[in-house]
Amino acid sequence: MSTFVSAISARRSQYALTDAAALSDSEIVDLIRSVAGEVPSAFNAQPQRAVVLFGEDHHRLWAIVHDALRAVVKDDTAFAATEQKIAGFDAAHGTILYFDDTTVTKNLQERFPSYAANFPVWAQQANGMLQFAVWSALAEAGIGANVQHYNPLIDDAVRDTFGIPADWKLIAQMPFGEVTAPAGEREHMPLDEQVQVRGL
């Protein structure tokens, strides 16, 4: 198995995370920046954006999520499980916020109107590739992570709290940290169903 495939295989949705990491904060930022610089995008437009939260900013994010969900989940019993889940994310070392800079997409739509309908889709694909690449790189470095989607419920509060530009659309949240209880076995569909071959 190649080193690249091994890194992908190490990537899992890790939920039992603590406020520790195999790399220093500056090393984590350097890793994320290195990965971001290599991830492709349609027309090399690079609409992907990431904001890395550490310390109190990381905790502020999950307080925002907690309060936003408390406002919509009125039943105390139902909210207890949600509250426990959020506490697990808050216990991690940090969080990466992923955004789409919509000004990039709008500019491309104006410049290339025949592809206008495709650019938002391609921007989402580019963001997904960034998330996957960073997630795999963190896993290879011994740092666990998972991906959450509390947007658009938290969008306004995140924008106001962290000074996010109005044209950046929140796509996902990725808490990360040291893994204390590895994820269980993953089920795979038969690969000959997932990847089909013609003409061989």
From TrEMBL:
GO terms for cellular component: cytoplasm. Keywords: Cytoplasm, Oxidoreductase. InterPro entries: Frm2/Hbn1, Nitroreductase, Nitroreductase-like. It comes from the Bacteria. Its main location: cytoplasm. Residues 8-177 form the Nitroreductase domain. GO terms for biological process: cellular response to oxidative stress. It is found in: Cytoplasm. The keyword Nucleotide-binding does not apply. Coiled coil: none annotated. GO terms for molecular function: oxidoreductase activity. This is Nitroreductase family protein. It comes from Bifidobacterium boum.
